[in-house]
Amino acid sequence: MDLQSLEILRRSLESWGTETLRPIVSDLEHYPFSHRFPVGLRGDLEHLGILETGADREIDLEAKGEILFTMAGIDASVATLVLVQILGFELLALSGRSASGGWLALPIYDHPLEWPATSGRTVCSEWRNVPALPNADRALLPMIFDGIPSLVSVELGEAPLAGVEVSEPILTLGFRGCPIADLRVNRYCVERDQVLLEGDDFAHKAAVLWSQAEVLAMAIRSGILHASYQTALEYAGQRYQGGKIILEHSLVRRMLADFHLADERVQRSWRRIARDAAPDRPLDDGALAEALDSGIEAAHYTSIGIQILGGYGYMEDFGQEKRFRDAKQSEWLLGHAQLKRFSAFESALAGTSMREVER
Amino acid sequence: MKALQERDRERGSSRLEGRFAPPLETLSAPEISLRAGERAAAREWSFDERYPALAALERKGFREIRAAREYYDRIVEFTRTEVTPHVLGIDRRMFEDPAYVPWNLLRKACSQGLFSAAFPRAYGGLGLHPLASVIAMEVIATSCVGVANLIGVSGLAIAVVLSTMDLRAVRRVAELICDAERKGEPKFLSTCVTEPGSGSDSEDREELAKARLCTVARPVPGGYRLSGTKVFISNGSLAELHVVLAVRDLRDPVNTLTVLLVPADSPGVSIPRLEKKMGQKICPAAEVVFEEVFVPEDHCCRTADLSGKGIANVLALTRAGVGAFATGVAEGAYRRAHEYARTHALLGVPLRQQQWAEHALAEMARRAELARSSYISALLASCRGGLQSLVDDLTRGFDPPRWVGRTALWRRLVDSPRALRLAARALDRQREDLLDAAASAGDVAKVSCTDLAMENCHEALRLMGKDGMRHDEGVEKLLRDARLLQIYEGTNQVNLIDFAKRRLRRRYGE
Q1: First and final CA of chain A: distance in angstroms?
Q2: What is the maximum span of chain A, computed from C-alpha positions, in angstroms?
Q3: Under an 8 A CB cutoff, do A240 and B476 touch?
Q4: Interstrand relation of B223-234 and B285-296 (parallel, antiparallel or unpaired)
């Protein structure tokens, strides 16, 4: 996507986010209790042209990152929801299928190494913490059939499916506006046409997709960080303590200076990785390391963002506590951090990338 | 990936048994808590195991530790049966109903003397050393720091009143709490310090002089007219009595700082809002507004130099108390992580058999031990040079039984001008070097323990992976609750600056 188009998209997003999304952030946060999801949200996102970016080859990783960065600055929950849709659309595009409208659920908190293994087409398994599941019309479930990585599509309608059980929405630490539920499948027979992708080809594509999605997760964290920093800076310029505004206290200046540098560092990092990423290859270990570090940094500095606001930072009013929770939860996107570390290291030890399928 | 999956299949399922157990979310709220509580409760440590240094002191003749040991056993049992099974359910309910109060639990806390443990027997308390009371808070905080705060925050108010050495006021608040506890219907105190324009600066003499205060106690015939706003007041909406820090003259806050006892039902007192906090939801925080509230003279604590020794005395004790809260959280995070590692696997290998996880758990246990040492040390320093040393100096260990405390003679004695003079002299005699040492130890304990607690919460969540994010696992709540500990009682940054002023400047003569 050219720079001009990207800029137009960013401004549209910011405008929509400020006018439409920001007023409903509080309602979204209460979704696990209210079970009320804004019905117009999907339409708005479609109208903005965001959801189809997953299937549009013209829109590169950096552009997708910009979308998520901008959205995360307003509400990281919705940014995560969009991330799920982007990945889901991309998987559908890889399989040659089209999306039929409605939300897609995809277990993006699972690392590929955590995909459930099963024997035969009659599946008994469980996927925990699946984003978008409570509202989803379709779930895309990666699993291992008799050792063969497969992507299975399960249509979820109003009426419950035999052998498929979706739990009540789960209350989580962060991203509460991106509803999460558990999916249990008990003696569910998977039909041939439900298998969208399978085999080594799928394993390779999934590995690349999951790896490159780390950049998108970084973009979300970066958006959260940036918003938290802006709020802390604004507050520090107005709050008095000991006879002067706290921005004039050197300790606060140092905290904000570190925060600013971290904000810049993470922004530059994900943009550089997105620009340099090859479309059909997973990220290199250096990029993965930066992605993992961004999760820890985001949690750390959003905590600083709370600390600068003191008691106000801990209350819901200023949004800092939500950013901290969202940043912390973003550490789990795309799998257990320990698995990512082990997986990367084993690849390095083996001398070849384990994220590419052994042919 | 293929090789790893094959290894996984050889080792059997990557999920342990019971994967089709009913989802926790379909259980009722108390059952949710019970599942998490049961998982968290292994054999509880004995007093000697948990506090070996205190056990050593006991052998040296520190008799109060025996009473603390016995109280510890009672509170462990109380926490196991009355707190742990319910905390998650209550927390969940607080999301939807911020005004909810777990009265059942609080009544049961009365039966354990949790509100009056450290009060003299003369006033109806258990007469235990503060050590016992603070240890009890650590034990409860291991399960839920919000509950510990809900119960323990009245102690902050008592400490503020005690620091004025106005024994008449101390008697009044102590009897309020103790009498209510005896009836099984708890009553609360709140400490109204923080204002919309003034937070941590209220706790430092130099900062106080320049603070943007708005709450004024204007002298009028017969008392004061109190006007202003206090924010983030723990138990503000529950308190029977507000212990309010106000200045008589905004131009000279340091020398006119006053403590007023304001009944919550006084005309002009209102609670316009309950704060929506990230954590510790069970302990309500409210905005308290005072509009020309008349406070009679005898509701004003007679004091001098509150902004000097007074504040230091309070903070030396209460920051050790926050350290105890944080130690409980650190311990709770470790236990939950340990239980999770015991019952879950990663790639088919039980977590507890993976060395990296074992190491992470050991680090967590180490942090909890470190935190415990720190707050105990601060507490003992407070006993040596802080508020407890004042009490010991004044009472010489004399604590008559309750029936004596109820006599008119005792009350006349405590309320007499002579008693006030004795108390003032005790305050004058208090050594500033020891007080500074106690306050410094409190600063260090508060900062260290709260930071260690947060590290443990982060580590527990990392170890649990995506399960850590779920409310029903109980660990994300610990993180949300623990975060507040780094903010109240002065932010950690302010605590460290206070430490620098008290300890480092004294040492290096700056």
Answers
A1: 34
A2: 72
A3: no
A4: antiparallel
